[in-house]
Specification:
By secondary structure, the chain is of the alpha/beta class. It is 39% helix and 17% strand. The chain has helices at residues 23-26, 29-38, 54-63, 85-91, 115-131, 143-153, 169-177, 194-202, 232-243, 247-261, and strands spanning 13-18, 41-46, 67-71, 97-106, 135-140, 160-162, 180-184, 208-210. It has an 8-stranded parallel sheet. Helix 9 (232-243) crosses helix 10 (247-261). The two termini are 16 Å apart. 49% of the residues are buried.
């Protein structure tokens, strides 16, 4: 994998969010990496979802020069020791860690008193501010509270990405005003994602990223199957079609944006 030691040619794509440590992908990693190369996907960011499995995420980034890692605890994981900002900052000192997250709020999966989720989100933002690394934010059925906490905690000072974006244009605008990028996943290829396609048409290219969130959310024509970073090409193709531009133009801008945001990459 040594050919990826330097930043890629601009027409290469970057998968800004995947989970290569998850069993569906980890068991077939060599082929996954070959597929990336064949589809001109030069780099991928492997995103942490809990601290228990963080070592395996970090190992991927240490082993393969075209893979990066983040550190954080997803809002969907309950009943565990809550991560503190100090602990996250310590883990983020590793040179292969380029972001804090994924973090945020998810009122879709869990119900009841979710103040612990909001507290956890605040700890991640504080960690990002302390170590100067951008945030990877997950928000589902919680856009108002997500934006409010971002504002209250000063998340605009480090910026980041609203990953797997599924919200409306107003939410996108508010996030971008706080120095956040908007990342589109395979959902944008789904026929019923009409409102999301409109956001993809309107957003300025210099604020856009593409991702797979693999092994989830495989784009058309692989919907329902195990997703992988190589499939981010289909996300880029859909955005190119929606905007009437070339895939190379999407690749050029989103790759530039990735390295502009994740400055430690």
């Amino acid at each position: 994998m040594g050919q990826f030691n330097t930043r890629p040619h601009s027409t290469m794509l970057v998968d800004s969010h995947c989970h290569l440590d998850f069993p569906d992908l980890a068991s077939n990693l060599d082929r996954i990496l070959e597929n990336m190369q064949e589809n001109k996907v030069s780099h991928a960011l492997c995103v942490s979802v809990n601290l228990e499995d963080f070592p395996s995420v970090l190992l991927l980034a240490e082993t393969y020069p075209n893979l990066y890692a983040s550190v954080g605890v997803h809002p969907g994981y309950e009943n565990l020791a809550e991560p503190q900002a100090k602990e996250l900052v310590t883990l983020a000192q590793h040179p292969r860690i380029i972001a804090i997250g994924e973090t945020g709020l998810d009122y879709f999966r869990l119900t009841g008193d979710l103040e612990w989720q909001r507290d956890r989100f605040r700890q991640h933002i504080r960690a990002a501010l302390q170590c100067g690394k951008p945030l990877i934010i997950h928000t589902r059925a919680a856009a108002s509270d997500t934006l409010r906490i971002m504002l209250e905690e000063g998340a605009d000072q480090v910026g980041g990405v609203m990953h797997c974006f599924t919200e409306n244009w107003e939410v996108a605008q508010q996030a971008m005003e706080m120095n956040f990028y908007i990342s589109f996943s395979g959902i944008v290829t789904f026929k019923n994602a009409v409102a999301l396609k409109e956001v993809a048409k309107k957003i300025q290219l210099d604020r856009m990223l593409v991702e797979t969130d693999s092994p989830y959310l495989a784009p058309v024509p692989y919907r329902g199957k195990t997703n992988q970073p190589a499939f981010v090409r289909h996300v880029a193709e859909e955005i190119a079609t929606l905007r009437g531009i070339t895939v190379n133009e999407v690749a050029e801008m989103t790759t530039h944006n990735f390295f502009n945001l994740f400055k430690d990459a």
